[in-house]
Amino acid sequence: MSYCVAFVIPCFNHAKPLKGLLKKLAPFGLTAFLVDDGNTPNDQAIIDKLLPDFPFVHLVRREKNGGKGAAVIDGALAARNAGFTHILQIDADGQHDTKDIPTLLALSEENPQALISGFPLYDASVPKGRLIGRYITHFWVWAETLSSTIVDSMCGFRVYPLNALLDVVRKDKPGRHMDFDPEILVRLYWAGIPMKFVPTRVIYPEGGISNFATVRDNWRISKMHAKLFCRSVLLWPHLIKRNRRTHWSQLEERRGLLGMQFLLAVYRVFGRRLFEVVLFAPLLVFWLVAKEQRQASESYIKQIRMYAAENGIPLKGPLSSFRHFHAFADSILDKFAAWMGDIDPKNDLVYEDRETERLLTQKKGEKGKILFVSHIGCAEVTRSVAENDYDIPVNALVFERHAPRFKAVMEKIAPKSHINLIAVDTIGVQTAEDLMARLSRGEWVAIAADRTPVRPNGLVDRTVRVPFLGKDAPFPTGPYILASLLKCPVYTLFADRDGCTIRIRARLFSEQLSLPRKERDKTLGHLAERFAEELQARALTYPLDWFNFFDFWAEASDEALRTHQKVPGEKIQ
After folding, report:
1. Most buried pick, 28, 76, 122, 510, via CB within 10 A?
2. Which helix (H) or strand (E) holds 335?
């Protein structure tokens, strides 16, 4: 059967704004099934008076109000009986932006097996309680699917493939009220239906009538999530199998944009203490299902314990993979605070010694700094030092695959941030020249010197293996090559939470890195070894602050070891 779509409009208590919606839908030339979900006689009269002016509308009338889900299902059945393959669900109250209908329909026609849904972009009219409630629902949907595929579970602006929708309705009998929208998405995901999401503007009209019954519908939604979560536990083996083992850069980051937005909302409204309470549930789920990351954590803990015991070094606090994950979760809030400017350098940050304070003090007109950072602790707090104390932008070199998501989060939570993201695998002559110009203006450039970036063809950048916690581990050479070209002082920087404060340590790595041609490989190995020594010392001091959740000591492939990303100005020998 060829693609054929119709509108389905559930309507209860929204007869008055309905005319405006139908006027906007008429130009599309599609059939619409308007479901009168047990409206009052007065509203039914308004609807009956409208219909002659809109001949494309077919009325489906329910004697009693059954809820939004029941109305959508009745509309879907009517559409399938009329020969349609898909329906576009849209609310009758005018919340949804009809300008996005062509985008939704085009995407649906290109992907007829997929569910296409709007991803709301709210304006100032959205009630704050409703917004936070949505993020709570998003968290539970993530827990029920172990996936960030469902970007939004509450928006009722969707295109459904009818056979898939009605099959799930018949087999699983989802809720018929406000619990329908999130439940049907979870069950369609379990059924293997692909999903795509389109950003769309959503408004709450002034004086609009909400059909959301605060007590009853919240109770229904709570029961629904309890039921779905219990059911999802049985499905975990199937859901977990969707993950596959890859290089660290190809691991899908589980800290999705929506999850971070939810946590941010909790932090902003309730503060750090409740944030930590709310974070416990997703943290526990993450720890239980993230098998590969958990194994990497256990491997790291085993290695650092062994090295510390052999060298008589006491380690701080009991070590376990769950505590390790908890430290990582706690660092997320520190990142939020740093990006939003909530870190007070005078009260929240402590320079480890006078040498650190001296090195991070920037005089007016002074050339910028290159900072070798790592995935230990929370190096993002350098933004507070640079911006608040000296009004200096920080340029962070990041892996390109992760940059769009990170940028999206930054734009949401810190639109005024001075952090500039530069993709690692797009560095060319122009980028190098731009970095030189930034450094000459006194800006800082932060480079993670503990991870090996991957180029678009999937090959790992060249590494050298140097001792780290008693075993040889691969360290990238790119940071040293780039720093040698930028001809600028290089510092190492670490920042770790210690109780109520974050301790910062900086050391001069080199006034200006130089790579003699004849001893280039030897020099690169020596530089990597020096950085690994500093990294090791920091890990031994703060063992739970190690946030590389992959096999750090894994052997690179022979092909990867033979390849080398060419940096402008460098000749490969």
Report:
1. 76
2. helix 321-340
Which run of H or of E encompasses 11? Answer: strand 5-11
The per-residue pLDDT of the chain, averaged, comes to 81
Burial of 58 (0-12, 13-18, 19+ CB in 10 A): middle
**Residue 300, token pair as written in the block:** 């790291």
**In which element (H, E) is residue 186 found?**
helix 180-190
Q: Around Cβ 519, how many Cβ atoms within 10 Å?
A: 11
Is 58 in contact with 34 (CB distance < 8 Å)?
Answer: yes
Instruction: Using a pLDDT cut of 90, give the percent of the chain over it.
Output: 42
Got the DSSP string for 70-139? HHHHHHHHHHHHTT-SEEEE--TTS-B-GGGHHHHHHHHHHSTTSEEEEEEEE-TTS-HHHHHHHHHHHH
User: What CA–CA distance (Å, rounded) separates 43 from 564?
Assistant: 71
1 to 85, 113, 163, 414, 453: CA distances (angstroms): 8, 13, 12, 48, 47
Provide the 8-state DSSP code for 377: B
CATH numbers and ranges of domains, the chain: 5-240 (3.90.550.10), 297-562 (no CATH)
Kindly tell me the burial class for residue 518, based on how many C-beta atoms sit within 10 Å of its own C-beta (0-12, 13-18, 19 or more).
exposed
Phi/psi at 350 (5° precision): -130, 125
- Residue 150 corresponds to which tokens in the numbers above? 């469902």
Q: Kindly give, in sequence order, each residue whose CB lies less than 8 Å from that of residue 351, ignoring residues fewer than 6 positions away.
A: 357, 360, 504
Q: What is the DSSP letter of 546?
A: B
How far is the C-alpha of 395 from the C-alpha of 443, rounded, in Å? Answer: 7
By the 10 Å C-beta count (0-12 exposed, 13-18 middle, 19+ buried), 237 is classed as exposed
Model pLDDT, residue 80: 95
Cα–Cα dist 229/96, whole Å: 30
Pick from 554, 438, 435, 450: nearest CA to 494:
450
Which has the closest alpha carbon to 435: 426, 425, 454, 422? 422
pLDDT at site 381: 78
Residue 206's Cβ-count burial label (10 Å; 0-12, 13-18, 19+) is exposed
Confidence of residue 564 (pLDDT cuts 50, 70, 90): very low
Say how far apart CA 313 and CA 301 lie, in whole Å.
14
Separation between Cα atoms, residue 22 and residue 489, nearest integer Å: 65
The sign of the CA dihedral 467, 473, 474, 479 is negative
pLDDT(194) > 80: yes
**Predicted confidence (pLDDT) per residue in 461-486, tens digit:** 578 999 999 999 999 998 999 999 89
The single-letter DSSP state of residue 400 is T
Write a three-state SS string for 239-259.
Answer: HHCCCCCCCHHHCCCCCCHHH
Q: Which of 65-74, 205-214, 255-264, 563-572 has the highest mean pLDDT?
A: 65-74
Given this model, what pLDDT does residue 567 score?
38
